[in-house]
From TrEMBL:
Biological process, per Gene Ontology: protein folding
Xref: CDD domains: cyclophilin_EcCYP_like
Family the UniProt entry places it in: Belongs to the cyclophilin-type PPIase family.
A GO MF term: peptidyl-prolyl cis-trans isomerase activity
Function statement: PPIases accelerate the folding of proteins. It catalyzes the cis-trans isomerization of proline imidic peptide bonds in oligopeptides.
Catalysed reactions, semicolon-separated: [protein]-peptidylproline (omega=180) = [protein]-peptidylproline (omega=0)
Record flagged with keyword Isomerase: yes
Keyword terms of this UniProt record: Isomerase, Rotamase, Signal
Protein name: Peptidyl-prolyl cis-trans isomerase
Pfam families in UniProt: Pro_isomerase (PF00160)
Family matches, as InterPro entries: Cyclophilin-like_dom_sf, Cyclophilin-type_PPIase_CS, Cyclophilin-type_PPIase_dom, E_coli_cyclophilin_A-like
Signal peptide: 1-35
PPIase cyclophilin-type domain mapped to chain residues: 59-215
Length: 223
């Protein structure tokens, strides 16, 4: 009888130990799963915060233009533009190329048509970002080289879908924002009388000066 009791007691103890091991393993697995979920949630929340679009004011001698940049679809172009804004690169430059039924371009030349040196390397062309060169959008100007944009930009004054990405032969021009107020000022610029000057065509006779470009709404940063 005593032997049977001991055997039953041993079995009970073994069952209890097994139960404790199973419970401990379950709790450990649950804790690890919660720990792995937390960083993923934080990363998702940070990503949502980082795509808040910044806004800049282009202050010209004809009035002010407010532009909302598209940091979500054109992160490279937006970051590049804001770097030039931060360095006050645009202060005192002009809209040096104005074509009434096309666009107005600036960000590269002084009133005496001397080109200001670019402060940063050319950037990757983001023309494939799905944004179209419609009236009121702002895009990066470049040479015939696809990835050659630096500081110069243009504002479309009509719908210019022909500037959108088609293929590698017609790569297009990267839109990175749009005018949200001040299109009347853009239209004043487009109506400027132009001439050829210092080897450049379509230069406004009366300089359209960019007094400054300043960030007025900064993108929120993730914590």
């Amino acid at each position: 009888m005593k032997t049977n009791i001991r055997k039953q007691t041993a079995k009970s103890q073994n069952a209890l130990v097994l139960f404790i091991y199973v419970l401990a393993f379950a709790l450990l697995s649950w804790s690890q799963a919660r720990a792995e979920e937390a960083p993923a949630t934080a990363a998702t929340e940070t990503k949502k915060v980082e795509v808040v679009s910044p806004e800049v004011v282009i202050d010209t001698n004809l009035g002010k233009i407010t532009v909302r940049l598209n940091a979500e679809h054109a992160p490279i172009s937006t970051e590049n533009f804001l770097k030039y804004v931060e360095k006050k690169h645009y202060d005192g430059l002009i809209f040096h190329r104005v074509i009434k039924d096309f666009m107005v371009q600036g960000g590269g030349f002084t009133p005496d048509m001397k080109e200001r040196d670019s402060k940063f390397d050319p950037i990757k062309n983001e023309a494939k970002n799905g944004l179209s060169n419609m009236r009121g959008t702002i895009a990066m100007a470049r040479t015939n080289e696809i990835d050659s944009a630096t500081s110069q930009f243009f504002i479309n004054v009509v719908d210019n879908q022909r500037l959108d990405h088609v293929n590698n032969s017609r790569y297009g021009y990267a839109v990175f924002g749009k005018v949200i107020s001040g299109m009347d000022v853009v239209d004043k610029i487009r109506d400027s009388k132009t001439e050829s000057k210092a080897g450049h065509d379509d230069v406004p006779v009366k300089p359209v000066t960019i007094k400054s470009i300043r960030l007025v709404k900064a993108p929120a940063k993730g914590k």
